[in-house]
C-alpha cells in the first residue's frame, strides 16, 4: 500500500477561460502553470482535448504541448488526452512523433475513446455520421501503434507507409478511460492506464480492477501502472477553498445542462440559485472532487490513494483566479511531498 510522498503527482490542465478574460490569456496561463508545477516537482503536465466549449481553450493538444514543452525543461508533457475517434491515426503518429523528436524522452501520448464533445461537433470533426463502435477503437489504436513501430502485419494496406517522424520516435503511450472498456484494453496491451475519477468516481474501482486483472507484461511495461485523476481545490482554509470551488461547480452544472460558457467568478457562483434539476447534477460530481484546506485535502488524498492503490495521482484544479490556481498546486505539493516522490518515465523501453 502506497502513501503520500511515495507516489508521483502530476497535473491535468484544460486551459480554462475565465469570465472577463480571453483565450490568449488562458493559454499563456497554462504555459505559466506548467513552469510553476515543474519547479514544484510535479511529474508530468497533460492537457485535455475538448471542442465546442467556450470555457476550455485546449482544443488542439498537440499545438499546446509543443509550446509547453518548449517553455519547460524537465517535466513530462502530454495529452490527457487525444480523442482518437477525432483523428486519423497516421496524423497522430506524425504529430506526436515530431513532438518526441523535438523533446526526446519527455512526451506522453494519452489516448481517449470518447469524442470530447457533442454529436454535431463530432460529426464536424470526423465528417462521418456513424458513431465509433467498440470494435473501431482497438483497430484505430492498433494502427497508431503500428505507425510508431513499423510492425504492420504482412499484407496490411498501410505496411508501405512510413510515418515521418513517428517511426522511431514513439512517445510514452497511455490509455485513458472513465469505464472498464479502455481499462481492459490497456491491460491486454500492457500499457499504462489513467482513470478519470474526477468525473466518473463510481467507476473507479471496477475499472482499476479490470485493468490489473487483465494486465499482460509488454515491451512497454513489466507491471501495471495506474494513474488516477482527481479534481482538487486547496486553499489556506476550508471556507476559502469552498468559495473558490463555486466557479467550477457552476461551470460543471452549466455544461451538463447544455449551457456551457466561460468559467464564472466565485461571486457569481455564490449568488446562483440551483434548480432541483441542477441539484441532481451536482450529486454526480462531489465524489470526484476534493475541496478544503491543507489538513482536509491531505486526509482525502490519503484516503483516495489507500482505496485505489494508485501508482500515481493526477490533479486538476479549476478556479477563476490564475493566482489562486497556482497557490492550490503549491499547497498540494507541500501536502504530497511532491519533491520527494519517485520519478518514473512509464514509456517505451
Architecture overview:
With 349 residues, the protein is an alpha/beta fold. The protein contains twelve helices and nine strands. The chain has helices at residues 23-40, 61-71, 89-102, 119-126, 136-149, 180-189, 204-213, 238-256, 266-271, 276-283, 294-308, 322-336; strands at 9-13, 44-47, 76-83, 107-112, 172-177, 193-195, 226-234, 289-292, 312-316. Strand 1, helix 1 and strand 2 form a beta-alpha-beta unit. Helix 11 crosses helix 12. The model has no long low-confidence stretch (mean pLDDT 92).
Structural class: alpha/beta
Question: Strand share of the residues?
Answer: 5-15%
Report the principal-axis shape. globular
Low-confidence stretches: none
What does the radius of gyration come to? 19 Å
H/E series: EHEHEHEHHEHEHEHHHEHEH
How far the N terminus sits from the C terminus, by CA atoms, comes to 26 Å
Q: Major sheet: order of its strands?
A: 1-2-3-4-5-6-7-9
Give me the number of helical elements. 12
Estimate the helix proportion, in percent. 40-55%
Number of strands: 9
Instruction: Estimate the mean pLDDT confidence.
Output: 92
What does the largest sheet look like?
Answer: 8 strands, parallel, barrel
Descriptive tags:
eight-stranded parallel barrel, alpha/beta, 349 residues, globular
Task: Please describe the topology of this protein.
Blueprint: E1 9-13, H1 23-40, E2 44-47, H2 61-71, E3 76-83, H3 89-102, E4 107-112, H4 119-126, H5 136-149, E5 172-177, H6 180-189, E6 193-195, H7 204-213, E7 226-234, H8 238-256, H9 266-271, H10 276-283, E8 289-292, H11 294-308, E9 312-316, H12 322-336
Parallel strand pairs: 1-2, 1-9, 2-3, 3-4, 4-5, 5-6, 6-7, 7-8, 7-9
Helix pairs in contact: 1-2, 1-12, 3-5, 6-7, 11-12
